[in-house]
């Protein structure tokens, strides 16, 4: 049960909402201002670095990579190579490939891990929850019944049962480029 909020001078006014603080993410957010956009850096990297960068697949206009701070096992993102923040600024080929890759991510995850459902979406702008809102990215989050269980709700700990490198290897190995039979089979 959330503790009653007690205002401290200069901290704000009570609003009835509990807060979930994630100070561990501040280093990640700050690193984006110190070294430029991590998505652009990863997009420009040689394909030989894909395993280290958690890149699952590359296309002509977009690529897919695992989220470094996943909400669930297999949480990945699909994003354009081009540094663009607004959905309406995508070109038609970028938009088409973004959706094709999102579809293939769902097909691949179903094949590899059989999740019960998915959350798929964009956080457009900082106010909408985008911590790296300057570079558009679509989240694909697999969901299983009970994935928000006791340990996550009460223990405030997320259990990720597999190393990111292992998840990346599985997904990359099962990924079939859109239009090459994989998505059409299912």
Topology overview:
Elements: H1 24-34, H2 38-44, H3 50-53, E1 55-58, E2 62-66, E3 76-80, H4 92-113, E4 117-122, E5 138-143, H5 150-153, H6 164-174, H7 182-185
Antiparallel strand pairs: 1-2, 2-3, 3-5, 4-5
Describe this structure in words.
The protein is built from seven helices and five strands. It has helices at 24-34, 38-44, 50-53, 92-113, 150-153, 164-174, 182-185; strands spanning 55-58, 62-66, 76-80, 117-122, 138-143. It has a five-stranded antiparallel sheet, with helices on both faces. By secondary structure, it is α+β, with helices and mostly antiparallel strands. Helix content is 34%, strand content 14%. It is globular and about 40 Å long.
* CATH architectural category: 2-Layer Sandwich
Shape descriptor reads: globular
Structural class: alpha+beta
What low-confidence regions span 5 or more consecutive residues with pLDDT below 50? 181-186
Order of helices and strands: HHHEEEHEEHHH
User: In the CATH hierarchy, what is the class?
Assistant: Alpha Beta
- Roughly what fraction of the amino acids lie in strands? 5-15%
Tell me roughly what share of residues is in helical segments: 25-40%
Quick summary:
Helices cover 34% and strands 14% of the residues.
